[in-house]
Amino acid sequence: MFGIKKLLFRDQPATQLVDDVRTGLEQWRDSATPGFDEVHFHSRYVVVDIATRSRQAGSDELQSISATVVRRGAIRPAESCFVDFTGELDADTVDRQLLAFLLFLGKAPLATYHVAYVEPFLQRVMRERLGVDFQSQWIDLAWLLPSMFDEKSHTPLPLDRWLEIFALEAGDGRRDPMENALLIARLLQMLLVRATGKEVDTAAKLIAESQAASFLRRTH
After folding, report:
1. Range 33-70 burial, b when 16+ CB lie within 10 A, else e
2. pTM above 0.85, yes or no
3. Residues near 41 by Cβ (< 8 Å), separated by ≥ 6?
4. Tens of pLDDT, residues 123-147
5. Which of 124, 55, 134, 144 has its CA nearest to residue 102?
6. Sequence-ordered list of residues with C-beta below 8 angstroms from that of 220, at least 6 positions apart, any chain
7. For a disulfide at 68, which of 20, 80, 133, 157, Cβ 3.0-4.6 Å?
């Protein structure tokens, strides 16, 4: 295996892509953005997680991306996407994998735990490999869980602590990236039920609530 970082991040912005990748990117760019005013039960959410060697977006090595769908209130394990950068890959294969991930996402609202950690990795690799300005609508469970479940904690907690609170953690705590995405999806399921009870009942409202919770907690 040669250096993941060298493989993923070009010295220059992407200008030469193979024909099938360019065609797929055009399809993704032309695809419709779903309405974010539908109630949660009618919305498709994509939960995203990444695995890296450490936690520095500017210098770290992105090892994998995992994603799964929450739709009609249910987790859809069959509707999952996993991109692994740790094998013997050539540049065109990496580009095709990233395109497959983009097409899987569509333009759905995305959910993760700590957007500030996950998003910069994705933005950088999409920009430098595919020339895509990756700007998505995010739901950040790190800030929303204490906002929606303040009887359990008024402040942000580590992900593993929330899993423990909701009795979702199993085994010795070591999880692969796809398992981690599925656990975050379980948390999102419970969050959607609580949010609906608080009349935060659409993707648009949940995204706004996430942004407000993040801003207020970071500035106070």
Report:
1. eeebeeebeebbbbbbbbbbeeeebeebbbbbbbbbbb
2. yes
3. 72, 73
4. 999 999 999 999 999 999 999 999 9
5. 134
6. none
7. 80
